[in-house]
Amino acid sequence: MKLFPFERSSLEVRRVLPRGFFGRALVIVAVPLVLLQLILAAIFYEEHWEEVGRQLAFQFANQISSIGKQIIVAPQEADAIISQSEAAFNVQLRYEPGAALDGAFAHPASSYLDYALERMLGRRLDYPYRYDTRSRDEAVEVQVGLPTGVLYVIAPIEHVSSSTTNIFISLMIMSSVLAFVLAVYFLRQQVLPLRAVARAAERFGRGDTHAPLVVRGATEVRRVAQEFLTMRDRIRGQIEQRTEFLAGVSHDLRTLVTRLRLQLELLGDNEDRNSMKADLDEMEHMIESYLAFAQGEGEEAPDNVDLAELLGDLVERFDDGSGRIDFRSSEPVHARVRAGAVRRAVSNLLENSLRQGHQLEVSLTQDKDGAHIVIDDDGPGILPERREEAFKPFRQLGDGTRSGGTGLGLTIARDIARSHGGEIELGDSPAGGLRALFRIPL
């Protein structure tokens, strides 16, 4: 048994609501506005339109009844009665002695005006009648079967229907449209600062730490924007402080490595010297990798880059004429990225694939999700359950043997991809090895 039976209906209503703040705020304004107009229309109909319509129909029926009785009492004076009545009641009258009612003239009641006429004419006339509210524009025609003939009456529509109804409905519609337009305008002005904050946050997440943001809008929106700017400045200061610290560490470590290299040069050419030199080379390579991982890509500014050209240059450098890399060139694909960071990420992926496989296939495609850089190799690959582990720092997977790397290549590459709002995914390659997919949003 459900404690809250309305829970499901609430979820169903939530599905049809707009997802955006602007759409939901518009619904909050529009729904009460429409309901208010409907309530006002219903009240007007009940209290004014229907009552006035009944009174007008009753008065019109009385006029016809009075004219008919006068003609029955004095049929020889029918022309004079008709002339006086036309001037007094502003209607067109015609009397045909000895005529009969037209059976095809009547039509079924289908509107409020028809029902009002039928009710009032039936109440005030003692003779058969026919009415027509459709054949003539802005006029009503009534036929009354008197004992001596047929009385034809043509009256303006104002005799049986109030014109204030149309005026009221027109004013109601115009005021509703005006209120809706004003609501859309003011809501849009309130949503624009929120969208600006969202764009600045997105660009900051992609590494653009200097994206402009003007603090404006309502008090709450201004506070959100100001807090975001404060947070961005704080994070940027921490990054700069860490970068300066690591630059100093890098300088000191490289100084020590340089001293050791000079001391090795003073030693004779022997096996121990060569082994120590190889260890220094590996140490320097590890230091560079650790610092690159810790530093990220610094303050490199995003720029509009042709990914096809960038990828072609990297493939040419790594291939070195050996023919190990099959690059499927594509049309230019432009994206706003940090070129140095993307170059480093793709370089890490190429290095890993060249280390594990003998032949590589590199391609660049573009779809609605963004640009896709795909690198396929024919190496041993990585088991599906261990692929996520491959992105952790200092982890070396694959065939289980050390490959000479530091275990940071994929970690740095994914960090760069995510800083651009993209992702790196590992999968099965058609060549039998590992597929690395680098997705970059455009």
The radius of gyration computed from the alpha-carbon positions, rounded to a whole number of angstroms, is 44 Å
CATH architecture of the domain at 23-162: 2-Layer Sandwich
Judged by helices, strands and strand pairing, the structural class is: alpha+beta
CATH domain class of the domain at 23-162 = Alpha Beta
The share of residues in helices is 55-70%
What are the key terms here?
single chain, Beta-Lactamase, Heat Shock Protein 90, four-stranded antiparallel β-sheet, 10 helices, 11 strands, 15% strand
How would you portray this structure in words?
There is one protein chain. A hairpin with a 2-residue loop joins strand 8 and strand 9. The chain has 442 residues and is α+β, with helices and mostly antiparallel strands. The chain is built from ten helices and eleven strands. Among the domains are: 140 residues, Beta-Lactamase; 138 residues, Heat Shock Protein 90, CATH 3.30.565. The protein is 55% helix and 15% strand.
Please specify the SSE layout and strand pairing.
Layout: H1 7-16, H2 21-73, H3 78-89, E1 92-97, H4 112-124, E2 129-132, E3 139-146, E4 149-156, H5 164-205, H6 219-266, H7 271-295, E5 303-306, H8 307-319, E6 325-328, E7 334-337, H9 339-356, E8 360-367, E9 370-377, H10 409-419, E10 423-428, E11 434-440
Parallel strand pairs: 6-8
Antiparallel strand pairs: 1-4, 2-3, 3-4, 5-7, 8-9, 9-11, 10-11
Helix pairs in contact: 2-3, 2-4, 2-5, 5-6, 6-7, 8-9, 9-10
Quick take:
This protein is an alpha+beta fold. The protein is 55% helix and 15% strand. Among the domains are: 23-162, Beta-Lactamase (2-Layer Sandwich); 303-440, Heat Shock Protein 90.
